[in-house]
UniProtKB/TrEMBL annotation:
TPR repeats: 67-100, 101-134
Keyword DNA-binding in annotation: no
Its biological purpose: May be involved in cell division.
The protein's name: Lipoprotein NlpI
Compartment annotation: Cell membrane
Gene3D superfamilies with a match to the protein in the record: Tetratricopeptide repeat domain
Quaternary structure and partners: Homodimer.
Organism: Salinivibrio kushneri
SUPFAM superfamilies: TPR-like
Record flagged with keyword DNA-binding: no
SMART domains reported in the protein's UniProt record: TPR
Segments crossing the lipid bilayer: none
């Protein structure tokens, strides 16, 4: 699931290479989990970066044009996992043109990843002041509030985001995660089941909802993913999501060791633009600080 309204595009799709999935007994342990070939930079991306560098070297650009180029290069750096360079570009873009809601939105995500929650709230507030219809800023602010432990406010943002599209499984999932930590497992499960019953449930993401509802086992989820590995990019994206949300479940159950392993697996495909990849690292850092 991306932080933008459009899906990621432009990545080369090599054939998937899956490790052998071996699950044993009722404990759903594996010897080798399903894996995708980690996504790699493409020639097109490298050429695009070089072209932007050439354009930025010109001295006849307007501030608006230069701001747009810095923003585009920042997005490219971000998609390749070069987030320090991306942040420099985004900040430079804002210095040239300060009224850019999309730039504030992604900077808010960066602040959240780094645990700077007050700065994240301010960035998302700036996005919504500039564009009050920017629903993904509300979603991202809700996630930041969730990680900041402000569950009531997080719930308000994520409930509003869910109501805009009640057929999106990821909106249900993040609302469920907040309600689980805030109101407890029983109430969160009941609300998730009710929302699912009122939704159109076509598409991959609903398997994750079924996993949280206990209607699909971990073994069945991973086996289904392993059997859908014809497109490596899609496989990498789905594994990123599956491992992240499985890790969240184990973390809630108090199994930190398994949660840590799954968060690392969520990051292994290099799906840098997905929120699940972004927040897997945040979760790992939080777990490291909580260890005795």
């Amino acid at each position: 699931m991306t932080i933008f309204t459009q899906p990621r595009a432009g990545f080369y799709k090599p054939l998937a290479i899956l490790a052998l999935l071996l699950l044993t007994g009722c404990t759903s342990q594996w010897t080798f989990p399903p894996m995708a070939v980690p996504l790699q930079p493409t020639l097109q991306q490298e050429v695009h970066l070089a072209r932007i560098d050439q354009l930025l070297a010109r001295d006849d650009l307007s501030d608006d044009a230069r701001a747009q180029l810095h923003y585009e290069r920042g997005l490219m750096h971000d998609s390749l996992g070069m987030r320090d360079l991306a942040r420099l570009d985004f900040n430079q873009s804002l210095s040239l043109k300060p009224d850019q809601p999309d730039v504030f939105n992604i900077l808010g995500v960066y602040f959240t990843q780094n645990g700077h929650y007050d700065a994240a709230y301010e960035a998302f507030d700036s996005t919504l002041e500039l564009d009050n219809s920017h629903s993904y800023a509300a979603r991202n602010r809700g996630i930041a509030l969730y990680y900041g432990g402000r569950y009531r406010l997080a719930h308000q943002d994520l409930l509003h985001h869910y109501q805009e599209d009640s057929d999106d499984p990821y909106r249900l999932i993040w609302l469920y995660l907040v309600e689980r930590d805030w109101k407890g497992e029983t109430k969160a499960q009941q609300a998730l089941a009710t929302r699912k019953a009122n939704a159109e449930t076509a598409g991959w993401g609903w398997q994750l909802v079924d996993m949280y509802l206990g209607e699909l086992s971990e073994r069945e989820l991973l086996e289904q993913l392993a059997s859908q590995g014809e497109d490596n990019e899609r496989l990498a994206e789905r594994l990123c999501e599956a491992y992240f949300y499985l890790a969240k479940r184990y973390q809630f159950q108090g199994d930190k060791d398994r949660a840590v392993a799954l968060y690392k697996l969520a990051m292994s495909g290099n799906v840098y633009e997905f929120v699940e990849h972004r927040y897997a690292l945040l979760e790992l850092n939080r777990l490291a600080y909580r260890r005795p």
